[in-house]
Amino acid sequence: MDTTLPQRLIELSLYSLKHAENQPLQLNQQTIQQNNNIEAHTQALKLNPQPITLHTRHEETIVAAVDTSNIKIGETSTGTLIAIRGANVWKQNRNFRYLRLGPFIFHITEENKKEVYSALQRAYFNSPHEQNYQSSPNLLQMPMRMSNLLERWLQAMLSKTISSGIILFDGSLSSGTADAPISLMKEILETARKKKNTVLAFSKMTNLRFNGHLITDFQPTYSPPYLLETASLKTKPPIVLLGDVYVAKLTNGNYAFRLDIDKQVPSTQKVEAVEKLLGNDFFLQSYPETLRLAHILCTFTANEVIAMQHFISRKHGVKIVNRPDMHRLLFGPFGRGEAYS
Question: Which pTM value belongs to this model?
Answer without folding.
Answer: 0.88
